[in-house]
Amino acid sequence: MSTNTIIVLVAFVIYMGMMILIGALNSKNSNNEDYFLGGRGLSSWTAALSAQASDMSGWLLMGLPGAIYLAGSGEMWIAIGLLIGTVLNWMLVARRLRKYTIVANNSLTIPSFFENRFKDKKGVLKVVASIVIIVFFAVYTASAFSAGAKLFANVFGKGADDNTAYMVGLIVAAVVILVYTLLGGFKAVCYTDFIQGMLMLIAILAVPILAYFVTVQGDAGSVSKAVAQHGVENPAGFFSLVKNADGSPITWQSVISGLGWGLGYFGMPHILVRFMAIKSDKEVKKSRTIAIIWVILSLGAACLLGLIARGYLSETLTESNSETVFIRCIQQLFDGNFVLVFIGGIFLCGILAAIMSTADSQLLVTASSVSEDMYKGTIKKDASEKSALLVGRIAVVVVAIIAFVIAIDPNSSVMKLVSDAWAGFGAAFGPVILLSLFWKRFNLAGAVAGMVVGFVTIVIWDYIPFFEEGATIGAKTGVYSLVVGFALALIVAVIVTLVTKAPSKEIETEFEKVKKVEI
Questions:
Q1: For residue 133, is it within any domain?
Q2: Domain count for the chain
Q3: Would you give the end-to-end CA distance of the chain in angstroms?
Q4: How many whole angstroms separate alpha carbon 240 and alpha carbon 178?
Q5: Virtual CA dihedral for 461, 465, 469, 474, nearest 10 degrees?
Q6: Helical ranges in 63-162 per DSSP H
Q7: pLDDT cut 90: percent of the chain above it
Q8: Does position 449 have pLDDT exceeding 80, yes or no?
Q9: Who contacts 410 (Cβ-Cβ below 8 Å, separation ≥6)?
Q10: Angle at the Cα of 46 (from 44 to 48), degrees rounded to 5?
């Protein structure tokens, strides 16, 4: 092991040790509300950075820059869609969801909110929602584990094709995330997310700026000329939002699919629970401003990184290793004395921060769903707080094992895994959340129908090979499944609601109460 590798390893050990320590310091959870929502006491800064750090994951520092590195600015439509979705989610959903979950019998999870919102005494909607959470969070957590494994393979191994280093990285990432999630619960996750959100922002801002100055001061003299020297035949197309790197026009499917990513925000449980946990309405307003600024800076920097790296890196990456673009830039920038290498190691921890901040949140939401909604809410309604917490922690371990198995393949794409999970949650939960918050007439039948249709559409669109050579509908049409799934779920939910019985007077009164209450 080289001296540089040892220095970077030291930085990693210090960072991961800090995260575990935070988990240990926040290990006192007297009940499920403490463990799963931190007692609804998040401050504006913690809520904002925790929500956005848990949102972006390793995808921000690996998947998105990698896609832009290969295809150019045309991939930035995804970032634009995510920015729009973030703003709308904080503007429309945050305050109202927080109020409604308190009024609706102090709901601690998204499935329990659905049950309380519609007075679903049979628990049908809660069970369906819990199944959706378990299925798609297993896939989502797998993307984080895969990103962590690729980080270790490239930093401590021989590269993306080093299977041994990949497996070691996979084990380390899974174990560290499990330990502090199991120890501390929601508070530990949010406090670590706050630190990780700050580190992610510093790293993603610093690296493209430094790479830019190095590039323009080099022989090429400009980024445009530099990318031309690194295999881009049409630099104008590479830097255009409406053209591909080869000069061909961007298709309408690409634009709609990219913007469609923004629809996913309305259905992301690990983001929505942050809204539910903010301690006051006043803090929501502060959080909104902080979160939007963070997203603008981080998404913009991630896009710039992908573009600048194409001209900066001394090697040309391919589709198989393009998601390591951020890692390669750091290694090339911070190569020299002890101080430079250690700083580079801290910046590489930014990737680890992105990975951990999302995976821990997903595991915790899964635990809350299994513990509160399936075990205590359906299987054993008289279960004690202690036994429910134990079941939740067991669920964390089980889902982590499933995610580990999914991520074992070194060729698994972080971008693809995130895309699938994002579509699943966005289509199944997004329309139901929006209609629940803003339509008094919305009823249980419509909610169940919308959720099921959204879930099934994603499965059919993305996973079932209808065409030759195993091609799915999504691969054949080029249209992101979330766009189709969200639209169909919304339409079906509205139609079924209108043709079935209106909700009870109690439900309508509670809906009106949310608009008036100040919490």
A1: yes
A2: 1
A3: 56
A4: 42
A5: 0
A6: 64-71, 76-88, 94-103, 110-118, 124-156
A7: 45
A8: yes
A9: 149, 150, 153, 160, 161, 163, 166
A10: 65
Instruction: State the DSSP code for 250.
Output: P
pLDDT the model gives residue 454: 97
SS3 of 145-208 = HHHHHHHHHHHHCCCCCCHHHHHHHHHHHHHHHHHHHHHHHHHHHHHHHHHHHHHHHHHHHHHH
- Specify whether the CB–CB gap between 389 and 108 falls below 8 A: no
3-state class (DSSP) for residue 42 = strand
pLDDT of residue 261: 96
Q: Using a cut of 0.85, tell me whether the model's pTM lies above it.
A: yes
Give the orientation angle of helix 44-58 with respect to helix 281-312, to 10 degrees: 30
Q: Does residue 20 sit within a domain? A: no
Look at residue 26 in the predicted model and tell me its pLDDT: 66
pLDDT in tens, 68-108: 999 999 999 999 999 999 999 999 999 999 999 999 988 88
What number is the average pLDDT over the span 307-325?
91
| CA 139/CA 174 separation, integer angstroms | 14
Cβ–Cβ < 8 Å for 66, 303:
no
Judge contact between 57 and 147, C-beta under 8 A.
yes
Residue 285, CA distances (Å) to 47, 48, 115 in order: 11, 10, 27
Longest alpha-carbon distance in the chain: 73
Domain that holds residue 495: 42-516
Residue 248 DSSP class = P
251 — pLDDT class (breaks 50, 70, 90):
very high
CATH number of the domain that residue 484 is part of: 1.20.1730.10
Rounded CA separation 447/430 (Å): 11
Interatomic CA distance for residues 172 and 430, integer angstroms: 33
The Cα–Cα gap between 337 and 340 comes to 6
Instruction: Report d(CA 197, CA 188) in Å as an integer.
Output: 14
- Check residue 410 and give its pLDDT: 81
Q: For residue 249, give the 3-state DSSP assignment.
A: strand
- The rounded mean pLDDT for the chain is 87
CB 364 within 8 A of CB 189: yes
Place of tokens 């590479």: 238
* Cβ neighbours of 133 (radius 10 Å): 29
pLDDT in tens, 131-145: 999 889 888 888 888
Residue with tokens 């169940």: 448
Q: How confident is the model at residue 329 (pLDDT cuts 50, 70, 90)?
A: very high
pLDDT band for position 15 (cuts 50, 70, 90): confident
Give how far Cα 433 sits from Cα of 69, 150, 178, 281, 472, Å.
Answer: 35, 35, 29, 19, 28
3-class state of residue 144 by DSSP:
helix
Whether 72 maps to a domain, the answer reads yes
CB atoms within 10 A of CB 28: 10
453 within domain boundaries: yes
How far apart are the C-alpha atoms of 23 and 41, rounded to whole Å?
17
Please return the burial class of 136, using the count of CB atoms within 10 Å of its CB with bins 0-12, 13-18 and 19+. buried
CB 210 within 8 A of CB 333: yes
